[in-house]
Amino acid sequence: MLETISLLFLSNLFMTFAWYGHLKYMNGKPLILVIALSWGIAFFEYILQVPANRIGFRYYDLGQLKVIQEVITMTVFAGFAFFIMKQPLKLDYLWAALISSSIWNWNYFDFTSTSALPSRKRRISSRKAGP
Q1: pTM above 0.70, yes or no
Q2: Tens digit of each residue's pLDDT (9 = 90 or more) over 82-103
Q3: Which conformational region is residue 29 in: left (phi greater than 0), alpha (psi within -120 to 50 degrees), or beta?
Q4: pLDDT tens-digit series, residues 26-51
Q5: How far apart are CA 117 and CA 59, in angstroms?
């Protein structure tokens, strides 16, 4: 499970740079060059993200994976905005943190519900191998 979270964190680092890094580092460069570079960076994001979701799907359901990914995305973006883009801390960051913590709390209750992790493992282990 930690492997999934680690891979998603790393993939989000790549994707955040693909989406926003050009605003700082490629200002004034031709758009086609920026697009090509962003796609190249996104390729490495997918190399990490696809295995993360495949590994994570053994333990989490689809909704849980999405919530984990969104919380990681907000965390990585906030760090990127502050440390790389030198954006000042604003009230927006507090709201994002509150929303993220609410999502974490919702995720906790989703994980500890009667339909959470143990039954998911049983469903996966009982699947028959496909053709």
Answers
A1: yes
A2: 999 999 877 786 677 677 767 7
A3: beta
A4: 999 999 999 999 999 999 999 999 99
A5: 6
CA nearest neighbour of 123 among 66, 115, 131 = 115
Nearest Cα residue to 51 out of 110, 103, 10:
10
**Residues 17, 10, 7, 61, Cα dihedral to 10°:** -50
User: Which residue, among 50, 63, 55, has the nearest Cα to 110 in the 3D structure?
Assistant: 63
Pair of tokens at residue 125: 């282990």
CB atoms within 10 A of CB 98: 10
Alpha-carbon distance of 14 to 106, in angstroms, equals 27
Amino acid identity for residue 131 in this structure: P
Model confidence at 130, pLDDT cuts 50, 70, 90, reads: very low
Residue written as token pair 């009667």: 114
Counted residue by residue, the chain has a size of 131
